[in-house]
Amino acid sequence: MRLPTTAAAAIAALAATANAFDLQQLQQPLQSILKSQENKQHQKQQPNIVFILTDDQDLQLDSLSYMPLLQKHLQREGTFYENHFVPTALCCPARVTLWTGRYAHNTNVTNVKPPYGGYPKFVEQGFNSNFLPIWLQSAGYNTYYTGKLFNSHTVENYHSPHVAGFNGSDFLLDPFTYSYLNSVYQRNHHEPTSYAGRHTTDVITEKALGLLDDGIAGVESAGRPFFVGIAPVAPHANMNPSDPPLKMTEPIPAERHKHLFKGVKVPRKPHFNPDTPSGVNWIASLPQQDEATVDQNDHFYRQRLRALQGVDELVDQVVTRLDDAGVLDNTYIIYTSDNGYHIGQHRLPPGKECGFDEDIRVPLFIRGPGIPKGRVEKAVTAHVDLAPTVLHLAGAAQRDDFDGIPVPLPNGRKQVYNREIIESHKRHEHANVEFWGIAIPEGEGNSFGPNNPAVVENNTYKGLRLHSPESGYDLYYSVWCNNAHELYDLTKDPYQLHNIYPSSSSIHRYLLGASIDQVINRLDALLLVLKSCRGHTCHAPWSVLHPKGDVETLKDALDSKFDYFYEEQVKIEYDRCEGGYIVDAEGPQVGYQYLTERDGLGWSHWE
């Protein structure tokens, strides 16, 4: 434990006057008293924040069960957000959303490389001077970061320009980002350094602890709180710079973890390699995987779990370092992943980029002052809420251009969003889902079948995840760029195997006490708002459709007096498939808003 100057002086004074005392007997209780006083002093300061972001970590495939240290330090000591969703299930768009508080359709960073994404697109859009670390520095924080920031942040362009907003940084750089045993890091404004032969998770752990020490020193010397972002690449697939583009093979664990989890297999749930095809568009045409492919993917799954053991140790070392320094009690630790992952579900090879729960539902833990221990938070939250959450924890003002709002933080502090006080029970029940571009199979030898061996081009879609246990619905609705539709009732079909979007066999079905057509009319109208929402309309979309404020949930909207309004509402329809967010390909952008209650009539276009 580091003792502040006042503590050292107190010990010296005692030593000078300890004629009749055994100083060795006093040392332990004295340090406990000083540590307690030091913690009280820190409690009066702005809290420190540590943000750990893994890459491609699943929630639905049970990876957390294989991380005992994370369970010890975060699950038992903090709150688990079990309904946390990522809007775009792809690395770079998800990370830009996370650090800006805006959906990808508002950042226009929708892919991992130019012209539609990557670090150059982030810079081009003006975010290098307008994202979370910049705002935290304005709020009095020292800011640090190590690991992967964005894709296409390379050994060639790292200084064009340098990433802004950090007092200290040590970034992983492409094309070595995903090379577990041949990584390249770039510290501050120095030239890149190769760490060939060392495991990247061990390297990033050392760097993270060093940055924590820098942050802790700033607390002790100047009273400035710290933000430290830590972004390991595990359990992402391995990619070597010398391999062909898009070749993603099994993750590589550290040598000490290679023997673990023998015989463990991908969870065999009903949607794992099903006998009957599921999904729509290209997913419905996937062939069933043969035994050799299943065995290969089980091995890939074990390698992911083994690669995560280094991250589990990282969590333990971060918590230990904070505790030893006496700042743990005044530090929030946030843990999540940029997107989820599937292996074999719906016959899919390893990968992400889909709208199924495996890809969009990810871990989120928060531990810190006032956060309940061992709590499971059921409210719907999303990555777009995390920049607002960090600013809220820091005591900084929310921004009017945020598309999200802070997650529920049951710590006795009121949550103020854009001058409105909103209690947790008022929180929205939807998660916005969107994707542009291609889908890529991962793992040695995997493909999408003989007709789609390498990539799928038409993987652009807009989706809506709606979850309300109180009202009895748990739904996923999406429209693809080829105008295929799908609707899953996860209350009855938790594995999303049965598309109940109207067809000749399902058009007379009922859902939530209404005809399925009436439910879809509401979902489509809500999705029409969300596909181009900004700011307040993203977390209060029903207010666009019903400006009088009498509709706040799907249950409210299902009132029969609105039937004709929703039947006549503008419907979502793509004009064509594109690789990025090109508005004139996206179909209608504006629909009707309900203005009167007389006979359910009277509406006009919203602006």
What would you report as the Rg, rounded to the nearest angstrom?
Answer: 25 Å
What is the total number of structural domains?
Answer: 3
What is the class of the largest domain in the CATH system? Alpha Beta
CATH architecture of the largest domain: 3-Layer(aba) Sandwich
Q: Give me the secondary-structure category.
A: alpha/beta
**Judging from the principal axes of the Cα atoms, what is the shape?**
globular
Number of strands: 22
Mean pLDDT: 90
Strand order of the largest sheet: 7-6-5-4-8-1-9-10-2-11
Q: What level of helicity do the residues show?
A: 25-40%
CATH topology of the largest domain: Alkaline Phosphatase, subunit A
Element layout with pairings:
Layout: H1 5-16, H2 23-43, E1 48-54, H3 68-75, E2 79-81, E3 84-85, H4 91-100, H5 104-107, H6 118-124, H7 132-138, E4 142-147, E5 168-172, E6 184-187, E7 193-194, H8 200-222, E8 226-231, H9 291-324, E9 331-337, H10 357-360, E10 364-367, E11 375-377, E12 381-382, H11 386-394, E13 416-417, E14 420-421, E15 430-435, E16 461-468, E17 473-480, E18 485-489, E19 510-511, E20 514-515, H12 516-530, H13 536-539, H14 542-545, H15 554-557, H16 563-568, E21 592-594, E22 603-605
Parallel strand pairs: 1-8, 1-9, 2-11, 3-12, 4-5, 4-8
Antiparallel strand pairs: 2-10, 5-6, 6-7, 9-10, 13-14, 15-16, 16-17, 17-18, 19-20, 21-22
Domain Sulfatase N-terminal: 47-396
EC number: 3.1.6.1
Catalytic activity: an aryl sulfate + H2O = a phenol + sulfate + H(+)
